[in-house]
């Protein structure tokens, strides 16, 4: 039961916040055999609890796909806090794939692509967009873009 509760909202989010939790995911990638370089631009800004969980889980699934499927030797996680959105990009130098052939959850006789489908659904639930760019032999880039309130609006709402 404790694990189920912890899995709903990973304690690392409460303990560290989204930015540090994503850096922790990146750091833990080396333990799975694929070093991941973390980078960030912009000033970290708070988001809703629901958005934090979804972003964390999407990145977790993207890195899990790198570890399990890509045969990559390197991954990258970049977080960008822009004035009106948060973008998170996970990329790798792996074998790549044809995105149109996976990710619908309807692959013939397999459970393949359910992770990609889940990532898309999580993104949609928080009003974000998710793009997946890949081709055989070309690695993969997963990009999440989450609209944020402009910083001046956030400051005004906090003063109320």
TrEMBL record:
One of the entry's Gene Ontology molecular-function terms is: protein histidine kinase activity
Q: Name one GO biological process term.
A: phosphorelay signal transduction system
Keyword list, A-Z: Kinase, Transferase, Two-component regulatory system
Task: Name the domain of life this protein comes from.
Answer: Bacteria
Please report the stretch or stretches of sequence annotated as the Histidine kinase domain. 57-150
* SMART domains referenced in this protein's UniProt entry, alphabetically: HATPase_c
Enzyme Commission number(s) of this protein: 2.7.13.3
List, alphabetically, the Gene3D superfamilies matched: Histidine kinase-like ATPase, C-terminal domain (3.30.565.10)
* Catalytic activity reported: ATP + protein L-histidine = ADP + protein N-phospho-L-histidine
* Protein's name according to its UniProt entry: histidine kinase
Question: Organism source for this protein?
Answer: Thermogemmatispora argillosa
């Amino acid at each position: 039961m404790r694990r189920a509760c912890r899995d709903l909202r990973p304690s690392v989010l409460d303990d560290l916040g989204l930015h540090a939790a994503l850096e922790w995911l990146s750091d833990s990638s080396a333990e799975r055999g694929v070093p991941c370089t973390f980078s960030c631009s912009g000033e970290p800004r708070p988001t809703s609890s629901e958005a934090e969980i979804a972003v964390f889980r999407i990145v977790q699934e993207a890195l899990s796909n790198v570890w399990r499927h890509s045969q990559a030797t390197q991954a990258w996680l970049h977080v960008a806090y822009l004035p009106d959105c948060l973008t998170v990009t996970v990329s790798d130098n792996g074998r790549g794939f044809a995105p149109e052939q996976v990710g619908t959850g309807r692959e013939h006789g397999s459970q393949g692509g359910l992770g990609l489908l889940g990532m898309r659904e999580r993104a949609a639930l928080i009003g974000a967009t998710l793009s997946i760019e890949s081709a055989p032999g070309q690695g993969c880039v997963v990009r999440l873009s989450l609209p944020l309130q402009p910083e001046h609006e956030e400051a005004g709402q906090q003063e109320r």
